Amino acid sequence: MRRKKFTIRRRVPGAPAVAAAHLLSRAELQRIVERVLRLSEADETEVTIEATADALTRFANNTIHQNVAETSLSISVRPVLDGRTARATTNKTDEESLRRVVAAASALARVQPRDPGLLPMPGPQKYRAVKRFCAATAAATPDHRARAVARVLQLAARNGQTAAGIFTTGCWQTVLANSKGLLARHEQTRAEFSVTMLDSDSSGWAKANAAGVAEIDPGSLAERAAQKAAQSRAPRELVPGRYTVILEPAAVLDIVGSLFYDFSATAVRDKRSCLTDRLGKKLFGENITLWDDVYHPLQLGPAFDGEGVPRKRVLLVQCGVPRNLVYARSTAQGAGARPTGHGFALPNEYGEAPMNLVFAGGKASLDEMIASTDRGILVTRFWYIREVDPYEKIMTGMTRDGTFLIEGGRIAGGIRNFRFNQSILEMLAHVEMLGPAVRAAGEEAFEMVVPAMKVHGFNFTEATKF
Amino acid sequence: MQEWANLALDAAVARGATYADARVMDIRHRELSTKNGRVGTVAESESLGIGVRVIAEGSWGFASTDQLTRRGIERCAAQAVAIARASALAKRHDVVLAPEEAHVDTWQSPLVKDPFRIPVERQLALLMAADAEMRRVAGVTLAETSMTFRRIEQFYASSIGAAIHQVRMLSGAGIVATSFAEGEIQRRSYPASFGGQHQLGGYEVVESFDLAGQARRVAEEAVALHQAPQCPEGRRTIILDSSQLALQIHESVGHAIELDRVLGQEANFAGTSFLTLEKLGTLQYASPIVNVVADARLAHGPGLGTFGYDDEGVPAQCTPIIQDGLFTGYLMSRETAAAIGQPRSNGCLRTEGWNRLPIIRMTNVSLLPGSWNLDDLIADTADGLWMETNHSWSIDDRRLHFQFSTEMAWEIKGGKKVRMLKNASYSGITPEFWNSCDAICSRDHWVLWGTPNCGKGQPMQAMGTGHGAAPARFRNVRVGVAFAK
Questions:
Q1: Where are the domains of chain A?
Q2: CA dist., res. A30 & res. A398, Å (int)
Q3: Which positions of chain A have pLDDT values less than 70?
Q4: What is the mean pLDDT of chain B?
Q5: Same domain for B328 and B393?
C-alpha cells in the first residue's frame, strides 16, 4: 500500500453541528403526538416519534474518504381495534400523511384475527430519570471530528502505519405516548471512535463509545491500536487446539453478547433458548453474575420499553445460576410473572430481551492475567461470530486485529488468526480470573459492561493465513 | 422528485461543489409474520428523503434529510459542501472519478401482481396455512413464517446532467420449523433460511414458492434430524445445494471482489480482501470449470442485484469475475475504477436508502451453470455428503478462512443418498476450496437466490444481493470441525 505524506489544512468555517440543529422541542414533539391521537378513531392508539441526527467521519489509507450526516424523523402509529393491532410508520409530518398513516395502521389491524394475548395499553407510568444527553456531543461539528482524525492520521504516518476508522457523533430523541395518557420521553447523545492501525503484516484495533464526546480520547485509542499492530508484527502460526485465553473486554462482549436473547421469557417459552429446562441450575462458574441494568452509570438507553413500561434492574445470573428472565407485558401475563420493562415495540413475535447487560467484574488487571499465564493467547477482538448450536450455545468466529501468544507470563509476539468453535456455556464455566467491568464496544453485540476474562480450555479449531 | 434533486444540485454547486449528485428515494415496506398459529408482525412503513453527495475542495461530503422543503433541501446541500470542506482538512489527494456519460432514462423492474394491492388478509392466510401445516407434525415446537415486500422509487440526478428514474419491487417469503427435544434444537427452512427467498417482482414471486405445499416436508425433516447421526469429522467430497452455494459465493467471492475492501477503505469494519491488485488476471481462483459473473442486467434474471443504473448513474453491466477459474474482475465505483486505472466503473455503487452514502455492493454475483444433471452427479459420487440449506456462516476479515454449517446433510454411498446427518459443517480456505470444484449442475438446477440483508459500511447499510447457483461438487473438503471436541 502506498503511503503518502498528508497535511493538516487550516480550519474552514461554516460546518454546522448536525445534531444540535435537529433537536425538536418538547412542545413540537407533543404537538405531533396530539395530532396523531386526534386523527385516530381506534379503541386505543399508541404513537412513537423518533428524531435522529447523526454524523460520521470515516477514514482509511490515512485520509478521510467518507463523511456523512443524516437527519430524520419517524412517526409510528399502533392502533388497537377489537383486540387486533398493527403498526404503520411514516417520515412525513404533513396533516395528510399523518391521516394516511393512521388509516393504514387501522386498516392493517382490522383484517387480521383477534389476538387473545393482546393486553389493554398501559396508562401513565413513572420513570426513573436517566441523563444520557451531552450538549457537547450534540454540538460536535465536522471540523471537530476532522481535526481529531487528522491527529490520528499524523500518528499513523509517524509510525509508518495506515489508519482506518470512524469518529461519529449524534443524538436521538424518542417519545412514546398512548391514548390512555402514557407519555415517555428520552434524549440521548452518542460519540464513538474506532480505529484500526495496519502495519506491514499485522494490525491493531481499539474502540470506545459514550454519551459524552469528551469521554472519547481518539489519541489514546489510536496509540493503543498502533501499539498492538507493532507488537504483533511477523505473526507466527500456532497449531489449533484448546488454549488458555485472555479475552479483552471487547472480545468478551462480542461472544457473550450472543446470549442476550436467551434470557427472553418468550424464547424460553418457544424452546429456542439455551436456558430452556436450565433455569435455576448451575450452568456457569461461581464467579459469573449478570444483571440487566439500564440504570448502571456506564449504560445508555431509555428507562422504558417498547410499550412504555418502566425498565427494572433484573438479576439474570447469580453465582453461575441463571435465576430470572425478562418479560414483556403479554409474556408476563402468560407466565404468571410481572413485566420487567424489556418488551419490544408491538406487534412482534420475539417478545422481549435484556439490552443493557452488566457483568460483575473482578479485581485482576490485564497485566496480572498475562503474568499468571505460562502459555496462552491474548485476544483483542473477535469477528464474524455466528451460532453453530443454539442449545449448547456453540459459537464460531475469528480472532482479529491483535492476537498474541503469551509465554512465561509475558507477551511473546503476534500469532496468525484463529477460528474458534466454543460453547459460551462451557466458556463461562471456565473463567479463572476477571478484570474490573468496563463499558466495552465491539462490532458483534450491543455495548455492555463487561470485564476482561482469563478462560481455560478455549477451543480454537483452525487457523487462517494471516 | 426531479425538482427536489435539481434544487439540491443547484444549491451544492452554488456553494462551491465541483461535483454533486442527489438521490430522492421513496421507500415503502410491508412486513408480515406468524408464529405458532398467531399473527406476529403486521407492519407497513414509508420513508421519503434526499441524499446529496458532493465533491468540494477535492474531498467528499454527504448529507441527507427528510425535510423536503426548499429550505430543508438547500440546508442539506450546504451541509454536504461544508462536510466536504471538513474532509479536506485531512486529505491526501483530490478525488478523481472515472468518466461516465450523463444518462437520462427510466427503468422499472418486472412486476405482475403489485403486492401492496393484494389484501393483507390474503397474504396472512397464505402464511397461516403454511404455519398450520408445519404444526400438524408431532415434535414441531415452533412454526414461523414471514413475508416482506419493498417498493423503491428513486430519482437520481447529477451535476454532469444525469437524470434517472427507477422503480424496483422486491418480494420474499419463507417458513421455518423448529423442534426442541432431548436437549437439542433442530430446524429446517424453506425456500432458504434466514427469511427465505427474495427476488425482484411482485406477489407472484411469493405464490411460486408453494409455502403450504412444502410445509409438512420441512416440519418432518426438522423432527427427523433428532434421530439422525452426527455428521462425522474428516475430509470428504461434498455436494452443496444451490441455496448454500449461493451463500458460499456471497461470502468467499462476492465480498472478496469488492474493490473498496481491496483498497483498504473498509479495513476498520468489514475488513480487507486477499484479492490484492497483483492477483487480477493472474490468480487461479478456482478450477477451470468455474465461471462467475457480476451481472446487474435484467437479462441475468430478477435478482436483488438487478437494476437499470447503479446509484451514481452507471448502467447495469455484466463483469466476468472468474473465467475458466482465472480471477478477472472486481466490483467497482467510479472513484475506485479510476484509482486502479480502469477506464470505466462497472456500476456497483449502491445505497440502502436516501440517508446512506452509496458504497460498493454486490449486484448479482453468480456461478454460471455447468452441465451435470443432479441425479447423475449424486450417482457419480462414491462417497460424499449432500449439504442443504445454510445454518451458520462465518469468514475471516480477508475472506480467506470460512466455516459454514447446514441445516441438513445426507451421506452419499455408492452413488445414493443413504442416511440423513445432523449438525453438518464444512470449512476451508477460499481459493483452495474453489479449486477443488469438479462438477457443476446445469441450468435446469440453477436458481437466482436473493440475500436481502447483507450488511456493510459505517453507518451500517443492509443491501439486497443476488446469487445464481446450481448444486456443485467439491473434493477433499474438511467437514465436521464445528462440533469437534
A1: 18-223, 235-466
A2: 47
A3: 1-22
A4: 97
A5: yes
